[in-house]
Amino acid sequence: MTETEPVAVRAKRLPREQRRIQLLDCALHVFVAKGFHAASMDDIAEVAQVSKPVLYQHFPGKHELFIDLLETQLGQLRAELTAALSAHQDNEQRVTGTITAFYEFIAREDEAYRLIFASGLDNDEEVSERLDRFHDTMATAIAEVIVDDTGQPMAEATMLGHGLIGMATSAARHWSRLSERPALGVSAQLTSRLAWRGISGFPKENES
């Protein structure tokens, strides 16, 4: 990184959507590094090499910026999990793929998972609403697979879906905090085997 690079960024006028993406990327780095409460719009503007008025043209305030960024990251994680679910017809491979996707998201160098799982905004109504919607959407997607395969009632299958999401999240977050940790693939396989032992206990509909 050179001292001349920020000046070049500041001098260049970007299309509105491209600028918005750049601001979100800079905000991600600031929120991850400082946390929501310690971060400021000044910090984000400085990292983005724009004036505060330019930042406020795109986002009314820090909270709105965080919500927009949270939506972006949740959308990415949702897409990755959905792709993992649809990539296989074998349910054991689906479980492994879904849990591996959690680990891979948490292992990203940008540490975007902190916005979702460690923002310090657990009591914020707008944040909670979006997290609940994300978990409900993914639990329902998993439940639909369980229902198709086992004939389990949807309400019960949805509970299993939430359980799988919770297990994957908890295990992957624990893994990320270890100073000496197993390889990602090994850890994902261990978690997947545990989850599969539980889910496979429900017989297929044509085996009942």
UniProtKB/TrEMBL annotation:
<keyword id="KW-0238">DNA-binding</keyword>
<dbReference type="InterPro" id="IPR001647">
    <property type="entry name" value="HTH_TetR"/>
</dbReference>
<feature type="domain" description="HTH tetR-type">
    <location>
        <begin position="17"/>
        <end position="77"/>
    </location>
</feature>
<dbReference type="Pfam" id="PF00440">
    <property type="entry name" value="TetR_N"/>
</dbReference>
<dbReference type="InterPro" id="IPR023772">
    <property type="entry name" value="DNA-bd_HTH_TetR-type_CS"/>
</dbReference>
<dbReference type="InterPro" id="IPR036271">
    <property type="entry name" value="Tet_transcr_reg_TetR-rel_C_sf"/>
</dbReference>
<feature type="DNA-binding region" description="H-T-H motif">
    <location>
        <begin position="40"/>
        <end position="59"/>
    </location>
</feature>
<protein>
    <submittedName>
        <fullName>TetR/AcrR family transcriptional regulator</fullName>
    </submittedName>
</protein>
<dbReference type="InterPro" id="IPR009057">
    <property type="entry name" value="Homeodomain-like_sf"/>
</dbReference>
<dbReference type="InterPro" id="IPR050109">
    <property type="entry name" value="HTH-type_TetR-like_transc_reg"/>
</dbReference>
